[in-house]
Amino acid sequence: MAENELRTALDLLEREKHIPREAILDAIKEALLQACEKTYGTSDNFSVVMNNDTCEYHIYEKKTVVDEVTDPATEITLSEAHEYDGSYKVGDTVNIEIKTKHKVEHKTVVSEVSNSAKQISLDEAHEYSSAYKLGDVIEIESDPVDFGRIAAKTAKDTIVQKIKEEEKLSIYDEFKAKEGTIVTGIVERFVGKNMSINLGRTDAMLMESEQIKGEHYEVTDRIKVLILEVSEDKRGARIRLTRTHPDFIRCLFTEEVSEIRDGIVEIKAISREAGNRTKIAVYSNDPDVDPVGACVGMNGSRVNAVVSEIGKEKIDIIEWSDNAASFIENALAPAKVIAVVADSDEKRAKVVVPDFQLSLAIGREGQNARLAARLTGFRIDIKSESQARELGDEFIDMSGYYDDVYDDDYEEGADSDEDASDSESDEYQEADDDQSDDYEDADTSEEEGSASDTDSED
Prior knowledge:
This protein is of the alpha+beta class. Among the domains are: 1-99 and 146-165, 2-Layer Sandwich (N Utilization Substance Protein A, Chain:P, domain 4); 103-142, no CATH class; 323-458, 2-Layer Sandwich (GMP Synthetase, Chain A, domain 3), CATH 3.30.300. The protein has 13 helices and 19 strands. The protein has helices at residues 3-16, 21-40, 78-82, 122-128, 149-176, 246-256, 258-261, 291-296, 301-310, 324-331, 358-362, 367-376, 385-391, and strands spanning 46-50, 57-66, 75-77, 93-98, 103-110, 119-121, 137-142, 182-191, 194-198, 203-206, 222-233, 236-242, 265-273, 277-284, 314-319, 339-343, 348-353, 379-384, 437-439. It has a five-stranded antiparallel β-sheet with strand order 10-9-8-11-12. α6 packs antiparallel against α9 (301-310). The longest helix is centred in the middle third of the chain and has 28 residues, at 149-176. The radius of gyration is 38 Å and the shape is rod-shaped.
């Protein structure tokens, strides 16, 4: 392959497969040395010099000048060394170029040769033509060394293998840098209920457990996925995709809300049951910016854009507070809370809600209370107002609270049938001695994975 063809091939690999030119040139050097080993039996005394810009390369065989040769592979006589350069002496190392390409050399006819690379004796010149005389310059075509079929195949296999390895490494590095971000892929095929997603340079599997229940995709559909984790094995990059992880919601809001990207609004905590409901706690570093309003957007435009990506899943956006009681009260929305007593050391909280708000606070199948517990990191014990008053000081001192603490919007019967539980409150009671509605921040959903959605910053 000519140098210009090699340069073109290297440029193509670098542009399309993101394989560094230096890596391929190193592979070519290694392949040439392996070819020398196949041809000469060893490569220990061979070296390859390559110009990375022009891709021109030379192979040199190193031999030591000696008085008497005992190993022709590594030694050369003084007289033979003087054919290359008359200045060599015993003990010097001679670099003899192995000609691997058809070349035309120009040599000057001299009476005594001191440099065989540039000079030729008159007798040798007459072997080409008797017309040559001293001082003439002769063009001599040199025959390249034939490495043979086996050596050539070995060299080719080495280069191909190196290209594959570098491509795998390049893909791994590219997607490792995208870990924790959302990318758009194309549904390529189905393997059972798992989806193979084309991400451009590689494919990755979206497992059934990482898909939002109720969603339906067809082959060639575009789909947004979160790159949750990228690891490496013998086959290359292993990319774990998800749409159920809480960080998927975090990234969607980051894309939609400029205040989050600018660091003005922070997402402090997320708890999620994919396909059903998500609670997200936000905080503003600017007192003039409403964090909840920023995430909701004008006429709900921003939150609706997120919801459109996750189907029918509901999203509750609440304001984070470093006051544990206030944070827990906000987390139990849309239910109205009368009183909260939080123990930050024990991570336990007691909550009192109006009688008609108890089912709303607990949520369908305990979902609202469960998500609130994960969001805040507190074990939450919920009682209705009448239950709390019956227990008296044993639960919460209610003397400082009055019946008119709730707004007109929360009058009896105002709770939503959609969010409220269909069952009586005692169906959600834990098997504790006090028979309370006690919800802790346990990781009861597979979708949560290793998420940090229960972490809230003080």
